[in-house]
Amino acid sequence: LFLPSFQxxxxxxxxxxxxxxxxxxxxxxxTVAGIIGSLYGIMQLFSSxxxxxxxxxxxRRYSLLSCILLSALGYFLLGxxxxxxxxxxxxxxxxxxxxxxxxxxxxxxxxxxxxxRPLVMGRFNAASSVGFILGPVVGGYLTExxxxxYQTSFMCASIFLLNAGLVWMLPWSEENPGxxxxxxxxxxxxxxxAKANRDLHLKSATNGAMASDSLFQSPWIxxxxxxxxxxxxxxxxxxxxFLVRLLMSVAILLYYSNxxxxxxxxxxxxxxxxxxxxxxxxxxxxxxxxxxxxITRLYQHNTYxxxxxxxxxxxxxxxxxxxxLSIWMVILSSTFLAFSTTVGRTCIIDLELTIGGNxxxxxxxxxxxxxxxxxxxxxxxxxxxxxxFSPCGPPSxxxxxxxxxxxxxxxxxxxxxxxxxxxxxxx
Length: 427
What we know:
The chain crosses the membrane at residues 35-57, 63-89, 149-170, 238-257, 277-296, 317-339. By secondary structure, the protein is an all-alpha fold. It is 82% helix and 0% strand.
């Protein structure tokens, strides 16, 4: 699963930086390009919850393969887009079904014990981040060739087809994923106990039987089940976790929203330096994902404390950046912010799954992605308003939002500490 996640973001990051240039070369105005980009975000916002819930009903294999193949179709159509209309059509299957990483995370949460989940999720995020670092470099090289954008899009579609083959080859029988693979590939982590293995076999067998039954249900029954599960999430007491996720997402997006422009206005550095600094932060984020094992052991696997401390550190570092008097303070804040944000992202997902229950992991991850999508829609608006007052306005507003998230976590401390008793109402 780590290899498909690496290839997924590697392929996507080859294409995405070139898309604005391509659509403008087709004759689209800035407004049309912005509308198409926004439509993609809106489709992701509404589809992530439904697709995640659908993966709980029909099973991870069927849903993951469907999403990979339909995403490949979208990037293939992108490679044939010679008009703005075809370009817009190519974004529809990707906007609806590009939730491959979320379903992969749900599958990982099915396969590993709750104790090992932050470590495995951290390594999964690190693998995908490496792809995101290397992809733009390869895409930039390919676009220099004749018809470079089309070649890059076809290569991205081919990578998704390769991923579909890899996912198809995974050992899906209930005897293999939890036992044999874990014994072969888990030398660096704590081994499963006998009880955890027995629980895993029982859960795999149960989920496999449910998925087989669900595949033969009519589409209307599947839709009704999806809506029922989403209603269960809406009526649950998980609102505070999703609110914390939204606030922290917007805070971090505000930090990066005018990063290059603010550095040029405040310290006179060129945008190229800001690009190098962001790449440096991404590389450190990969390292942070690999260090989650020692961190969770240091905190005795208390995800709530890790999230609280990482969010507090994130808030402090954004404040340091907003009040920085020299570029060295910016470099210092960026260095540690890469660690705190990576740890925080992994821990908020783990807390969602711990409190909500693994039985609805796809739905929970889908709702979490929708919450993050809301943040991506809201953050540019807030950033534009805040920049009217000062170049430091967006990060300063981010500090306030992060502080509210920390206060919410402190107010619900008892709930997080007794997460074993908290489940969705429909369970």
